[in-house]
Structure formats: C-alpha cells, structure tokens
Amino acid sequence: MPPSGYTVFIVDDDRSVRDALGLLLSVQGYPITLFADAESCLDAYRPDWRGCILIDIRMPGMDGLALQKRLREVGSVLPVVVMTGHGDVESAREAFRSQAVDFLEKPIDQPRLMAAVDEAFRRQSQAHETQEQATEFERLLGTLTAREREVMDLVVAGRHNREIADLLGISTRTVEVHKARMMAKLGTQRIPDLVRLTLQKRG
Q1: Model confidence band, residue 49 (pLDDT cutoffs 50, 70, 90)
Q2: How far is residue 178's CA from residue 184's CA, in Å, rounded to a whole number?
Q3: pLDDT on residue 167
Q4: Cβ(174)–Cβ(165) below 8 Å
Q5: Whole-angstrom Cα distance, residue 9 to residue 35?
Q6: What span, in angstroms and rounded, lies between the C-alpha atoms of 117 and 123?
Q7: 69-123, pLDDT tens digit by residue?
Q8: Please, what is the Cα angle at 77 between 44 and 106, to 5 degrees?
Q9: pLDDT for 196
Q10: Separation of alpha carbons 164 and 150, rounded Å
Q11: Mean of the per-residue pLDDT values of the chain
Q12: Which of 72, 113, 129, 139 has the most CB atoms lying inside 10 A of its own CB?
C-alpha cells in the first residue's frame, strides 16, 4: 500500500493501456490519475503532487522522454517509470540519464511494474523527508546569532577550534561556547550531521 496522499499518475495515449494499468494498480490499493497525453499532464501538474508517474515514450505531440525532461525543468521531483512498446538502448539511456526509476517494455510485467512503483514511492518518501529536514534546518539557522553562524561556517569548512579562535579574534573557550550553543539550537550533536544538513541545504 502506498503512503497516504501518494498517487500513481499514468500518461499513455492508448486508452486500453491506461485502463488496464489503472485497474491493476487500483485493485492493489494505489490511487491513480489518468492522462491521455503529455500536454494534459503538464497542464494539470501541481508542485504538491506526491507519488510517481508512469510515462509512455511514444505519444502524439510531446513524447514521453520530452515530458520527463519538462517535468524536471518545472521543478518536479516525482520519480518517473518509463514504458514503451518499442524499446531501444538509446531511449533507455536517455530515460535513465533523466533519473527514471525503471524502463518497462510492453506488455508490462506485473511484478516488475509493482516493484518499480514501490521503489518510486520509496524514493519519493526519501526526497520528501530530505526536503522537510532542509526546511526545518533553514528555520533553525534563523535562530543563530551572527557569531554562532560564523562559527558554524568555519566548523563546516573543517576548521579546528584554535584556528576559529585565531580567525575570529576570540578565545578558544569562547569558540567552544558558541559551538555548543550553535549545535544545541540546530538540534545536532555530531559535526558530520551538521555537514550533511548544510550540504542538503545547498542542494
């Protein structure tokens, strides 16, 4: 079962394929939304969508690979599963370069489809959690004093307490106090965790 609020968005110009995939997934408990072409999917897209998108490659108008790229350009982090009835190596490479979860050839193998959707949901949950952490970290950064922020930047840059003291013209003991307060406000106890959060913020 998918996490609450997650949907499988299916984009395929073949109505029989849309209906078959929609039935298969809905019977398994997955909420679905169907689109007959790439343009209607783009028109309907909202940044708060959660879940994944199943995209057919060959469609009239904008094809599936172009839709995949366009979604990334507008800021979508929805994982994509690419489907095709005419698979080739170059299309697969292009799909995976755009971070597709999987490249499925029709007729779709049901176990592989379910595995791909579950993996897509796992990636979406992870990305959503990372974004929430980054947002909370940004809020916590706003609670730091100017001096605590200076100390944090130097700690993340790999400077030791004595080096920080020399650079800021303060005592090592004062650096330790600012460092302890900074770590407490940010809710972290280890320097590697602080570095990880800072790198996530920078994207």
Answers
A1: very high
A2: 10
A3: 94
A4: yes
A5: 8
A6: 10
A7: 999 899 888 999 999 887 666 777 777 777 788 888 888 899 999 999 999 999 9
A8: 75
A9: 82
A10: 9
A11: 89
A12: 113
- pLDDT tens digit string along 156-171? 999 999 999 999 999 9
Q: What is the DSSP string of the chain?
A: -PPTT-EEEEE-S-HHHHHHHHHHHHHTT--EEEESSHHHHHHH--TT--EEEEEES--SSS-HHHHHHHHHHTT----EEEEESS--HHHHHHHHHTT-SEEEESSPPHHHHHHHHHHHHHHHHHHHHHHHHHHHHHHHHTTS-HHHHHHHHHHHTT--HHHHHHHHTS-HHHHHHHHHHHHHHHT---HHHHHHHHHHHH-
The encoded tokens of residue 71 equal 């979604």
Q: b or e along 64-94 (b: 16 or more beta carbons within 10 Å of the residue's beta carbon)?
A: bbebbebbeeeebbbbbbbbbeeeeeebbeb
Angle at which helix 191-202 crosses helix 110-141, to 10 degrees, equals 100
Residue pointed to by tokens 């080739």: 88
